[in-house]
Give the backbone structure.
Amino acid sequence: MTSPSSPLADIPNLLRCETTPREAALAKAAEMTHAVYPHDAVYGQFCTVQDYIDCPPEDVFDYLADLRNLDEWTYSTRHFEPVDDSGLHQGWDTLADDTRIYAKVVANREALTVDYHCAWDQGDELWMIYLNRIIPAELVLKKPGTVLVWTNCRHPYYDDNPNKHLVSDPDRVWVGDMWPLFYAGHRAELDNLKAILEYRHARGIPVTGHVVREGVSA
Amino acid sequence: MTTPVSLVDLGSALPEAKVATDFYRGADAVLDDSVMFKSPKYRRHIGPEETAADLIVRAARPVLERAKEHGDGPVDLLITNVLLPDLPFTGAGAEVAHRLGQRPEWVLDVHNGGCVSFVYMLKLARQIMQSGGARTALLCNVQNSAGQVFTQPTIRTKSHAPVPGDGCGIGYLRVGDESPVLDVEVRQYVEYATDVGLAFDDDRKYWQPGLSEMDVSFTDSKVAKIIGRGNQLVPEVVTALCDRIGVRTPDIDVLVTNQPNRMFLRNWREALQLKPERHLDTFEEYGNLFGAAVPITLHEAVTDGRVNPGDLLVLAGFAHAGDMAGAAAVRWRADAA
């Protein structure tokens, strides 16, 4: 039993073995376990996609850490160029007409994390953040290769663009309007990423440094 | 063109003894706050001298009366599934047939199929009838462990003891297309056969002398797996069946499954995208009726007018720890629609 003096005594609804017997905890767990989950319950506030990629984690890191490669594996972001020497880049997002996307890579080779801090239309507040965690599959699946976990969180700007004044066309689609399709879009892009990396790794081709700027115009 | 076979009638018999949860009041109290796992309010207990055959005879008589009025001859095929056979080396079929004044060409006592045995018996019967082996069939399901196994002094205080309830359900089949069985899908997952068994404190065989009381138990380590399995198996088999007959699962008018607990009922309904009123539920009143749940639950709904001519009925469930799963589709009283 949790004693009245416990630092947890006043915190309600904790599920701990001291206060909930195993059988009741199992019942609670079973209650929480459904056969299916509504899309919104899973992807409404957070959107995580993940997969195994048959390519070494260091190569996956190098590929993801280079913004130019987004031209290859994303559906719509193209032609990133440095804006200045701060690491800020600008490119095009072809999801909408005449739309600039600003991005900065925040990567940590030791931790094998590659995050993209992005925004549409302006580079002062990079609020649209793509979190990528690269995990050696040897650790978690006992096989060579990589597990990639990619998460987006539903920042309030997805629902309300605070910079409407920067958009000349009032009918232009807003990135947040597409949140219900993020799972599908990100899943498809992760499929692209996996296909490219696995193709090159299987054939001994260097995974990065291939970008050919194809004819995408604003 | 295969011979059509119809599920034309149902019957049920419930033991007199209606037992409230306070009869047990043992380890199940720990689950009182659980929406899904608190004990069902009521269940029936088979009487100390009541046999499976007694229940079947009681349930079958009105069904056979109606069959006779319809002009049917004697029953050609009798299939029983009894959870706890009164005699371990013979089934109830022959005694039932005799007491009902029948001498069927086929008497089959099937001892597998557990909670989905009604669907399995339906598949068996339909196969035999389509081959010309029988014109009429009586399918009999008895659950009789609640008043016998789960009332024993050391068993009745366990948390799972209040869940089972006793009862008998009957289905009657006739060759013809008046209420046709559209299709049946049964899947065997034989690898799960040993995940449920009997438990005795002193590990004796059930037939050996001793003081320990018999319990039915799922392997502890498998409970989570069985939950996952159950969540998956029934929606899968129903979806496969619906695909084959060309309907979407939300178009099922009446779904009748086994009634193991509220969680599975909720999850199956959700997975098949059915409104609660489309999924019949007798759990609160009768507890877990095992194999008898499908025919009893359907019979009550038919009797209460909750099943309409032309309705697409789907009967489904899974057995034991998942060693069999099945679903059958019936166009209820298609001829009257």
About this structure: The longest strand of chain B covers residues 5-13. Helices of chain B lie at 52-70, 93-99, 117-130, 223-245, 262-271, 283-286, 293-303. The CA atoms of residues 12 and 305 of chain B lie 16 Å apart. The mean pLDDT of chain B is 96.
